[in-house]
Amino acid sequence: MRAAIWLMGLFAVAVAAALFAGSNPGTVTLYWPPYRVDVSLNLVLLVLLLSFMVLHLALRATSAMFSIPERARSWRLQQRERAIYASLLESLAHLVGGRFIRARKSAEQVVMLEESMARSDESLPHAGQLRALSHLLAAESAHALQDRNLRDSHLQSALQQTQLRDAADIRDGVQMRGARWAFDDRDAAKSSEWLEQLSSGAARRTVALRLRFKAARLSGNSLQALELARLLTKHRAFSESAGKSIARGLAIEYINTSHDPVQIQNAWESLDDQERRMPDVAMQAAQRLLSLGGDPSLSREWLLPVWEEFVQRPESLSTSQRVRLVRILESGFGAQGEVPENKWLARIEAAQMANPRDAVLQYLAGVVCARLSLWGKAQQLLRQALSMLQDSALKRDAWRALAVMAEQRQDMQAATHAYQQALAEAVKG
User: Considering only CA atoms, which of 364, 373, 374 is closest in space to residue 398?
Assistant: First the structure.
C-alpha cells in the first residue's frame, strides 16, 4: 500500500514538472559586461537543484569525516559496555549453576572492565550500581566457597559503592546479605548488628524479619524470637498452624529461662492470651512455678483455662497431656501441705461425675479425697481407676496411695500387697 502511494506521488510530481517545464517560455538573462547570456528558466532551476544536492552531499561527507573519531570512540565504548554486561551475565549464570570460582572471576572481570573505562574518562550511566552488584556477586561466590576473608573484602567494597547516589538503593540488599552470611557463620551478634543498620522500611520487610527471627533463635533470645514469630504469623510469613507451633515452642523456652517465681510470673505476663491458653505452655509454666517454690494456687489459676477446655471437650487434650495436667494438679495439691480449695474440689468432682469412665479423672479425684482425709471415697476411686489406667506411673502412685491408706488403717497385709503392686508397676515403667 505504501509503495502504491509513493508511485502515485511520483507520477503526480512528474506530470506537474512536465506541465510546468513544457509550457514555460521564461528565460533568465545574465549580464557580465560586455557580455549578455540568456538562459532558459528550466535550466536555471535544474542547475540550482543540482547545486543544492551537491552541496548537501558535500556537507554530509564532511560531517561524516569529522565525526569518525567520535564514532570510533562510541564504538569502543559500546564494545566495552557489551563486554561488561556479558561478564555480568556469565557471573550470574555460573553462580546459579554452582560454578562459584568462575562466577567470582567473571564478577571481578566486570569490576576490572568498569575501572578501565573510568580511567579512560568513560563511564556508564549506572557505574556505581554495576560495581556494587559485581562485588556482591563475587562475595556470594566466595561465601559459597567458605572464603570468608575474600567475601568480607568484596562485601565492604560493595558497601562503599552504595554510598554513591546511583547505587544507594542497593545498600539495604548488601546489608541483608551481610546479615545472612553472618547467620550462616553462626554469629548471631554480627547478624543482628547488620540488621540494625537497615533502614526503617527495609527492617519491616518479611525477609528482614525472618533473619531477625533466626538470629534471635541462634542467640537464645526466646522473648525476641517469640515477638518476631507473632509478627511473621500476622504477616502470613508462617501458616497459622506453623505459627502456633513455633510460638508454643518459643514460649516454653522462654518459661524455662526463669529461675525464680518472680521471673516466671513476668514471663507469663509477657505472653498473649492465645499463648497462655495453649495446654503445653500453661502446664510448663505451672510446673516450672511449682518446681521453683511458687504459689500453688497461682499455678492452678494458670491451668484453669486448660482445665475448662478439657472438661468441655475431652478430646482437646491427648492422653499424655491429660496425664501431665493431672500430675501438675496433684503436685500442687501436695505442695507444702496444700489443701485443695472447695472450688477446685467441686470442679474435679463435677468433671469426674460427668466422665465416670475417665480413669485419669478418677485418679485425680481419689488423690484429692486422700488430701482431704476422705479415706473411704479415696480408696474407692483409686481402686476403680486402677482397672482402667494405662499409664504405669499413675498406677504406681495409685498403689502407693492405697498402701499409705492401708497403713493408716493398720492393715499391714493390704499395705504390703499395695507396695508390691507399686514396685511391679515401677519396674514396668
Answer: 364
Tabulate helix, strand, coil % of the chain (nearest 5): 80, 5, 15
User: Is residue 226 a contact partner of residue 259, using CB atoms and an 8 Å limit?
Assistant: no
Please state which of the ranges 17-31, 171-185, 311-325, 352-366 shows the lowest mean pLDDT. Answer: 17-31
Measured between alpha carbons, how far is 174 from 172 in angstroms, rounded to an integer?
Answer: 5
Give the angle 104-105-111 at the CA atoms, nearest 5°: 95
- Cα distance between residue 220 and residue 214, in whole Å: 10
Residue type, 130: L
CA separation for the pair 206, 394 (Å, rounded): 47
Highest mean predicted confidence (pLDDT) among 263-267, 359-363, 394-398: 263-267
Phi, psi for 31 (deg, rounded to 5): -105, 120
pLDDT of 286:
92
CA nearest to 231, candidates 215, 255, 213, 258: 213
Say which residues have a Cβ less than 8 Å from residue 49's Cβ, sequence separation at least 6.
Answer: none
Cell numbers at residue 233, please?
Answer: 504469623
Q: What is the mean pLDDT of residues 94-105?
A: 93
C-alpha 405/C-alpha 74 separation (Å) is 103
- CATH for the stretch 339-429: 1.25.40.10
Distance CA 177, CA 207 (A): 11
pLDDT cut 90: percent of the chain above it? 29
Summarised one tens digit per residue, pLDDT across range 333-391 is 765 455 556 677 788 888 888 887 888 888 888 888 877 777 778 788 888 888 787 77
> 87 is written with which cell numbers?
561478564
pLDDT the model gives residue 109: 92
Instruction: Please list, in sequence order, all residues whose beta carbon lies within 8 angstroms of the beta carbon of residue 193, skipping any fewer than 6 positions away.
Output: 182
Half-sphere exposure of 209 (CA within 13 A, CB side): 18
Whether the Cβ atoms of residue 247 and residue 230 lie closer than 8 Å to each other? yes
Q: Give pLDDT, residue 334.
A: 63
Q: Taking the domains of the chain in order of start, what are their residue ranges?
A: 15-56, 220-325, 339-429
What number of other Cβ atoms are within 10 A of residue 74's Cβ? Answer: 12
Work out the widest C-alpha separation in the chain, in whole angstroms: 166
